[in-house]
Structure formats: C-alpha cells, structure tokens
C-alpha cells in the first residue's frame, strides 16, 4: 500500500510538471501576462529553478509594467538560473537561460560594466550550444551569439562571425522568421542594403513559428518599418 502511495505521488508530480511546462509554452507563445504571473506564483516555492528563472525572464521582457523594476526581475531570474545549473550541470537549456538573462541585464549596466559581462554571456551561451540537443534552444543560443557579435561596439564586433552564427541558427530552425529579422539588421549595419531588404521581406512572407506567435507579430511590424526606411 505504501509503495502504491509513493508511485501515485511520483505520477502526480510528473503530471503537474508537464502541465506547468505546457502552460509556460502557452504563455510565451501568446505573451499572456496573467498566465505567466500564475506560473511564477506556482513555481516560486518549488525546486523547478529552471522554469521559474525562464518565466521571470519572459515576464520581465514582455509582461512587466512600466512601474516594475525589470532589472531586479532579471537579477532574481539569473539567481535561479544559476541554481538550475548547479542542480543539472548538463542541462543546456539552463545555460541558455542564464546567458539570455545576462544579455538582458547588460542593457541596464552601462557600456563599461556591460562589456565586462560579455565573458559570462559567452561562457553560458557557448555551453548551451555545446550541451543542448533541443533544436529550439540550440537555435536560440546561436541566434544570441550572432546578435552579440553584431551589436557590441568596435573593435569587439565581428560581422562575419555574426553571420556565421545566424546562418547556423537558421539551418537548425528554418521556420523562425525572427532569425531573418536579425540577419536583416546585420546586413543593414554591414552596408549590404540589398541583402537586408531580402531578409526583411522574408520576415513578412514566412509563417510564424508555432511556439512564438506574438513575437512573430512584433517581428513583422518591425521588419515592415525597417523595410520602408530602406526602400
């Protein structure tokens, strides 16, 4: 009887974990603020550090109000991403989340301090690329590295390296139009106007990635604006 009770608890915990993960995917897909708030509340006192960190990161990115301290949200998210890595040191997704949070935090730290954060960003993001077999998170990690080499100031930027990372991301995740958006921005910075136009047009033509519907809407709006300026 006791064994049956333990088995029931195990099955229940697996079911609840899967349900929380499904709700996270749904919240991110539609940028559902209320759902992500519920998830954060559910996860805060659990040992699911990774999903808690990723939920906080997403909330800070698109859910937090103007009066909320987004920097503090990212700081807390990074704390739990590091806990997730300690708990599961071979989990590539955890390294991606840590790197992505550092990339967001750098926006609040000023030029000098943000440049010092590059080492940590590179360490976590490259480790994510190395470890993860999940195509979605591997592509996001490659995309992040491509943006990193594009956006840091001279002489740290490297447009060729940026292009290499972005093309690898596109190879792994060809149905994610945001990669074309970031490639367009790269080519525009690089002075390759015709290639930039081609990439922006692809953003408008391609169907959305099924896991990122709201992100796709925003990408299409931005691509349309950028395209109008170039033509």
UniProtKB/TrEMBL annotation:
Matching SUPFAM superfamilies: TPR-like (SSF48452)
Pfam families: TPR_8
InterPro entries documented for this protein: TPR-like_helical_dom_sf, TPR_rpt
Domain of life: Bacteria
SMART domains on file: TPR
Gene3D superfamilies per record: Tetratricopeptide repeat domain
Keywords: TPR repeat
TPR repeat residue numbers: 177-210
UniProt protein name: Tetratricopeptide repeat protein
Organism, scientific name: Thermosipho melanesiensis
Taxonomic path: Bacteria, Thermotogati, Thermotogota, Thermotogae, Thermotogales
């Amino acid at each position: 009887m006791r064994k049956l009770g333990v088995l029931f608890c195990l099955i229940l915990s697996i079911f609840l974990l899967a349900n929380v993960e499904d709700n996270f995917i749904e919240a991110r897909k539609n940028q559902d603020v209320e759902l992500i708030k519920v998830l954060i509340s559910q996860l805060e006192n659990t040992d699911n550090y990774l999903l808690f960190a990723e939920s906080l990161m997403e909330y800070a990115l698109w859910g937090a109000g103007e009066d909320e301290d987004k920097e503090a949200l990212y700081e807390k998210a990074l704390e739990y991403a590091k806990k997730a890595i300690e708990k599961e040191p071979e989990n590539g997704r955890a390294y991606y989340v840590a790197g992505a949070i550092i990339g967001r935090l750098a926006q609040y730290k000023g030029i000098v301090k943000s440049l010092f954060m590059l080492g940590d960003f590179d360490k976590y993001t490259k480790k994510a690329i190395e470890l993860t077999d999940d195509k979605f998170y591997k592509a996001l990690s490659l995309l992040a590295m491509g943006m990193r080499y594009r956006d840091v100031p001279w002489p740290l930027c490297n447009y060729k390296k940026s292009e290499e990372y972005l093309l690898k991301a596109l190879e792994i995740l060809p149905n994610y139009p945001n990669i074309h958006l970031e490639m367009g921005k790269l080519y525009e910075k690089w002075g390759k106007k015709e290639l930039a136009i081609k990439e922006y047009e692809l953003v408008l033509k391609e169907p959305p990635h099924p896991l990122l519907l709201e992100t796709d809407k925003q990408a299409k709006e931005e691509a349309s604006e950028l395209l109008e300026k170039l033509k």
